[in-house]
Amino acid sequence: MTTEVRVPTLGESVTEATVATWFKKPGDAVAADEMLCELETDKVTVEVPSPAAGTLAEIVAAEGATVGVDALLANITEGAAAPAPAPAAKAEAAPAAAAAKPVDVMVPSLGESVTEATVSTWFKKVGDTVAQDEMLCELETDKVSVEVPSPAAGVLAEIVAGEGTTVDASAKLAVISSGASAAVAAAPAAEAAPAAAPAAGKDVEDAPSAKKAMAEAGIARDAVTGTGKDGRVMKQDVAKAVAAAAAAPAATAPAAPAAMPRGPVSADDAAREERVKMTRLRQTIARRLKDAQNTAAILTTYNEVDMTECMALRKEYKDLFEKKHGVRLGFMSFFTKACCHALKEVPEVNAEIDGTDIVYKNFVHMGIAAGTPQGLVVPVIRDADQMSFAEIEKAIAEKGKRARDGKLSMAEMQGGTFTISNGGVYGSLMSSPILNPPQSGILGMHKIQDRPMVINGEIKIRPMMYLALSYDHRIVDGKGAVTFLVRVKEALEDPRRLLMDL
Where does the record place the Peripheral subunit-binding (PSBD) domain (predicted)? Predict the structure, then answer.
């Protein structure tokens, strides 16, 4: 005998509710009056008891579903032999499901200090057949994009974290129904997954409307005290927290600069505008650059370098260099070598502040700023001071390609001690680069431009480049900064000095 579980009376003027949580899953034995699920309205939370003892045979309305009064929620199979119907209910899928087993798709390692990511794109949908290691979705962190491969061949049975969802480093993204017969079982698995999966490990999941209310109010989960089952946050809890925050003295609010409000926009202009949400990477770039300005005492010193000798040396050896090493000889290796040379003489430019300490680095991990379609990233070439010209060029080429393809790992962008930024590739003649915290120095390169120069009393046309060193004046004095830039200039104008460590 089957008994229907329906939405109870919700109260005067309340016509619908949201299924917040299922405490049972299909196949579970239930006692009469045992709580099966929890409904949430805009006023109260309602627990739904089982109308009879038996087995939960089917969940009709999954978590998150909106249901009306008297809507069917589930079916209970009654009787002493109640546990048996659960397999019977799945009899049609049994031959296929017997060989299939669920495999969780988890968030992969995001790297040091990265605790969360946003699901940006799903390449597959529920019910799709997937091969092992086939890309399922792409996550976006504040530093890199991470593709998530399928851990097994089978069928995508459930997507737990949809596009736009923020997930932590240990979150479950999806469920794969794997096995030889997974494709046959795709339809039953896709239907059962939304009902069955929520019951596992979601006992303290906050109510959907509460999550929405917290997002709209911009209030953190930690600032809300949940009064629902097991500390679950309900919509009314959020309302109380917002009211309490508004009533608190202004002095307790965190000091933060107010965003500049937009000026009035005409209806005609507004219709032609396009509003696009900033990516996590762009938000992080913006925050870190502003933090650098707010924290460090940034000052920039300039000089210019005659590129005649570097250009002549490169022209003479570039074909032989490429033939032997399989990589083109560019100017970045000259600048990297020159900076490593200068950093040994002026170590404070290669240092960082840690509280009241100065940490001097007896190595050079060189950051090479690279522009990508997603924004500026800074891959790091480790121990660049120990590398040859060829090794530096190979590292720059390889990391530059990975940066443009969005394939850089977190480890490849951490630990830099100094940065070089080449705005010259975009035609920049002069700029003032901003520090990459916690580093204390960054060298800005610019375009090479022929200019008239006085050489031994004669005016000659020379290929000149402006150099800019931005530095943290808290630990780098003007003398050290100027000395560093002069040493870089000397090494580039006479590259033989690099060979002789002069």
Answer: 205-242
Q: How far is CA 179 from CA 95, 133, 136, 197, in A?
A: 12, 15, 17, 19
88 pLDDT band, cuts 50/70/90, is: very low
pLDDT at residue 229 in the model: 59
- The verdict on 219 and 193 lying in the same domain is no
User: Exactly one of 28, 104, 128, 477 is catalytic; which is it?
Assistant: 477
Q: Are both 68 and 156 inside the same structural domain?
A: no
Sign of CA dihedral 294, 276, 112, 434: negative
Q: pLDDT tens-digit profile of 353-389?
A: 988 889 999 999 999 988 777 677 888 999 999 999 9
Cβ atoms of 436 and 315 closer than 8 Å: no
Torsion of CA 321, 322, 327, 333, to 10 degrees: 30
Q: What DSSP string runs through 421-453?
A: EEGGGGT-S-------TT-SEEEEE---EEEEE
- Cis peptide upstream of residue 438 (ω within 30 degrees of 0): yes
Is 206 in the active site? no
Nearest to 155 by CA among 187, 184, 130: 130
> Cα(242)–Cα(212) distance, rounded to whole angstroms?
13
According to DSSP, the β-strands at 418-422 and 441-445 are: parallel
Domain count along the chain: 4
Catalytic residue check, 477: yes
Are 117 and 29 within one domain?
A: no
Catalytic residue among 28, 104, 128, 473: 473
End-to-end alpha carbon distance in the chain: 93
Taking a C-beta distance cutoff of 8 angstroms, is the pair 105, 87 a contact? no
CA dihedral 243, 249, 250, 256 (to 10 degrees): -80
